[in-house]
Amino acid sequence: MSILKTYDYYLLEEREYEQLLTRNADPSQAVHHVVMEIINDVKTDGDAALRAYAQKLDRVQLERLFLTADEIAALASSIGREQQRALEIAFANIYRFHETQLRKERSIETMPGVKCWREPRPIEKVGLYIPGGSAVLPSTLLMLGVPARIAGCKEIVVCSPPQADGKINGYVAYCLQLLKIDRVYLVGGAQAVAAMAYGTPSVPRVDKIFGPGNQYVTKAKSLVQALAGVSIDMPAGPSEVLVIADGSANPEYVAADLLAQAEHGADSQAILVSTDQRLIDGVQTALEDQLTQLPRAAVAAKALANSYAVLCDNLNEAITFSNRYAPEHLIIETDEWQSLLRKISNAGSVFVGHLTPESAGDYASGTNHTLPTSGYARSYSGVSVDAFVKKITFQHITAEGLRNIGPTVEVLAELEGLQAHKNAVSLRLR
Ligand SMILES: NC(=O)c1ccc[n+]([C@@H]2O[C@H](COP(=O)([O-])OP(=O)(O)OC[C@H]3O[C@@H](n4cnc5c(N)ncnc54)[C@H](O)[C@@H]3O)[C@@H](O)[C@H]2O)c1
Ligand SMILES: N[C@H](CO)Cc1c[nH]c[nH+]1
Ligand SMILES: [Zn+2]
């Protein structure tokens, strides 16, 4: 039995091609309506709405909506040394990769005496959403908290769904300590996004909201961006992977990489694009074997039911398909990977060679795992330090500079009919 339905690239009609590229559509607007109601409730009722949704959606009764530094420290102390060490190494590698992103830019003299430059300034208040529905992801806290710290953000608000005991996971607590964040809000889903967008008596309003999440979280981020005037990092919804593999690939590795994203959630998608039918057959067999070994087999099996394989004639076609799909993660498992890199135009993060599992980037190699999904890799980058700063432009003009640039500005102001603009220059040239 084949787990992945296989399409022949050559036989794809345009409409079918389009359907294969579409994911997480909400045609009945069901998610939209649910999320709109949650946003309105939080906006109107504040903390009371957050408590009610914690009860309804997370099955937890909460008095206080946050944990203090002492409570975080107690939870963090419960985790093992091996796990602490792994989180510390991940923290250090993520820090090392991201700190170079805050490089000072050069000042440019566009004409003699006319100098222009840009300087970054941290976004003052940022909100980080750490998913906690089907799996708790402490790694996501490192992926968001490290660039926020490097950028110098003054206030870092962290929200994550409460566990059944009304607390958070000890690994998340340890990451909070590594990041020197001394409070965490026990709020999940769309209600967390709404709380950070509007503010409630307990949860501070922020200037920009970051973080991945399920379809409710992702929808809430796009809605509050329009309704509350708060910025967001990007649409970072259910995880996706597209693997390009040829006859040189190991089917066991390919199957493992597909399953690694499939186990995130039933709405995840794992796509195999190959030039070799035997490789596709081998991956199907390996998927069957490996799936039975997974604790989250039921979730992964559902995700694979939304997934598929595409058989192409050559690697150029494979890249063309991938560029149109614009995957969150692209893995290239072929000996030819070097010649393909320059042809990649749309992808969140790329993993090349047979020994580069995507899991390395999910946790510890240093790159960021908060990435655009659902085709948004066509126009968005993943999270980086840049996302936590604004870049302000500056300029200084000398007397010589004004003589050089002034006449041009006068002509342009005149042709736009904006006399006051022209005067601001002419007065200084007199
Ligand atoms: N793109 C990325 O960068 C990236 C990174 C990490 C994780 N992810 C994705 O993040 C997602 C995490 O999802 P999750 O569900 O595990 O955690 P989550 O924290 O995003 O969502 C859990 C919350 O969803 C809300 N919710 C659940 N059912 C609801 C309903 N019927 N109506 C309204 N709200 C409801 C609840 O408030 C709950 O607390 C996964 O899809 C994973 O693939 C993406
Ligand atoms: N693959 C996820 C991004 O889509 C990130 C993650 C966190 N933990 C494991 N994986
Ligand atoms: Zn992952």
TrEMBL record:
Protein residues bound to NAD(+) = 129, 191, 214
> Which Pfam family name is an example for this entry?
Histidinol_dh
Task: Give, as in the UniProt entry, the pathway in which the protein acts.
Answer: Amino-acid biosynthesis; L-histidine biosynthesis; L-histidine from 5-phospho-alpha-D-ribose 1-diphosphate: step 9/9
What biological processes does GO assign it?
A: L-histidine biosynthetic process
**EC class of the enzyme, as a word:** oxidoreductase
Q: Which residues form the active site?
A: 328-329
Chain residues that bind substrate? 239, 261, 264, 329, 362, 416, 421
Alphabetized UniProt keyword annotations? Amino-acid biosynthesis, Histidine biosynthesis, Metal-binding, NAD, Oxidoreductase, Zinc
Classification via InterPro entries: Ald_DH/histidinol_DH, Histidinol_DH_CS, Histidinol_DH_monofunct, Hstdl_DH
- SUPFAM superfamilies in alphabetical order: ALDH-like (SSF53720)
- Superkingdom as given in the UniProt entry: Bacteria
What is the protein's given name? Answer: Histidinol dehydrogenase
